[in-house]
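Quick one:
INPUT:
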């Protein structure tokens, strides 16, 4: 944190989230589940509301003032994403439904073009299912193999293994920037550089990174970078695929239909240039505009101040939970974002999650769509608290008190 960094005005920030003043089962809600989906602040909700009430029609169609206006708002949101990621051009940004759809798009176009029988796709040991299953489907179709970069017990990737794993058969590396289970911030820039040294492209799953870290796709030199709006204080139903223009231009379209064509005859269809050729059909216009508003909101708070607040919460929560003898924290990497997974001896995470819920504390209990991570740590599931910039130290106390109460109950 720089010396002059003013902390966030938490009381003011919290007023932007009406859900935070709700009661759950008679208790104030303590929302510690932003990694599953973030809450939307009022300015985002109001921006979408205004669009729906007064500005809606379809985009990229027709000459009406309304249609041009809607198109301008929608494309302005793409420009906001461009600035947010520091992409070179808006042409490198494809709207998708979310991270999952973005990865499937890459697998079924770029992947399908490049991967052949006997080839390898290299993923990290801490991927979300969204960055495993699309590649597994492709590997099955093509007769290719998935390989895995292993990790330590602390939840850090073992990069010494990388040079051996990157072979002349590796056609793509897929790596998560921040693990949704362990919170590890992976050294993606280094991984990309090492893959590029062998001419191998890299896709980065940024779903859990963009809410916490300043991401610069040019500095990272990522070939593809993907994320979802709903984890970035925006709405569901919208996400982003960043791809280097040369890749997007060389990739075939994915879904066919309206909006993505230059001309259609019974004999042949020609396609728009990127990103249009990947955006068939009517897009989620309000959601895209909402994501633009979320990026404005985050920028106004400042990612550096957001990260400072979340880091303080993570440190405090880690210290307090680690002090409870029955608690084991999973993921103790040196560089972590505000995701805290733990197990409590003798209590199944689902039971713990239900008990915490009874105290108004909302966390996620389960395998977090990362069953290989559960297998690696030999647990069926974990309980995961994830902190956003609107959370407070008092809410961490509420979590710890509820965990202690649960342990007492199970004694
Ligand atoms: C690391 C990571 N990747 C991918 C996803 C999938 O995101 P979505 O369901 O928004 O497509 C998630 C969601 O939890 C995630 O945490």
């Amino acid at each position: 944190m720089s010396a002059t960094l003013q902390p966030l005005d938490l009381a003011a920030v919290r007023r932007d989230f009406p859900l935070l003043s709700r009661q759950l089962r008679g208790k104030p809600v303590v929302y510690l589940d932003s990694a599953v989906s973030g809450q939307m602040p009022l300015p985002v909700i109001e921006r979408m509301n205004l669009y729906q009430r007064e500005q809606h029609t379809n985009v990229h169609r027709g000459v009406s003032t309304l249609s041009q206006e809607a198109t301008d708002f929608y494309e302005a949101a793409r420009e906001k994403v461009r600035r947010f990621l520091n992409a070179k051009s808006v042409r490198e940004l494809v709207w998708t439904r979310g991270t999952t759809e973005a990865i499937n798009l890459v697998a079924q176009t770029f992947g399908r073009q490049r991967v052949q029988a006997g080839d390898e796709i290299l993923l990290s040991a801490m991927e979300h299912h969204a960055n495993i299953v699309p590649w597994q489907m492709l590997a099955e179709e093509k007769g290719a193999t998935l390989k895995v970069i292993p990790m330590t017990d602390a939840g850090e990737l073992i990069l010494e293994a990388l040079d051996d794993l990157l072979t002349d058969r590796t056609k793509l590396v897929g790596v998560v920037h921040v693990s949704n289970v362990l919170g590890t911030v992976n050294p993606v820039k280094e991984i990309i550089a090492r893959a590029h040294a062998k001419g191998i492209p890299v896709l980065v799953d940024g779903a859990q990174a963009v809410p916490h870290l300043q991401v610069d796709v040019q500095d990272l030199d990522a070939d593809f970078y993907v994320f979802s709006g709903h984890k970035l204080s925006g709405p569901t139903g919208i996400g982003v695929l960043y791809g280097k223009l040369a890749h997007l231009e060389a990739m075939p379209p994915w879904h066919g239909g309206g909006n993505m064509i230059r001309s259609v005859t019974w004999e042949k269809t020609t396609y728009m240039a990127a990103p249009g050729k990947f955006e068939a059909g009517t897009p989620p216009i309000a959601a895209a505009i909402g994501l633009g508003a979320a990026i404005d909101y985050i920028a106004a708070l400042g990612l550096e101040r957001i990260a400072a607040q979340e880091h303080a919460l993570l440190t405090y929560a880690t210290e307090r939970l680690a002090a409870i003898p029955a608690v084991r924290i999973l993921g103790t990497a040196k560089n972590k974002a505000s995701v805290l997974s733990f197990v409590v001896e003798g209590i199944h995470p689902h039971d713990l999650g239900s008990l915490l819920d009874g105290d108004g504390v909302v966390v996620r209990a389960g395998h977090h769509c990362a069953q290989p991570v559960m297998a690696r740590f030999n647990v069926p599931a974990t309980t995961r608290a994830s902190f956003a910039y609107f959370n407070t130290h008092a809410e961490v106390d509420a979590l710890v008190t509820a965990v202690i109460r649960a342990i007492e109950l199970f004694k």
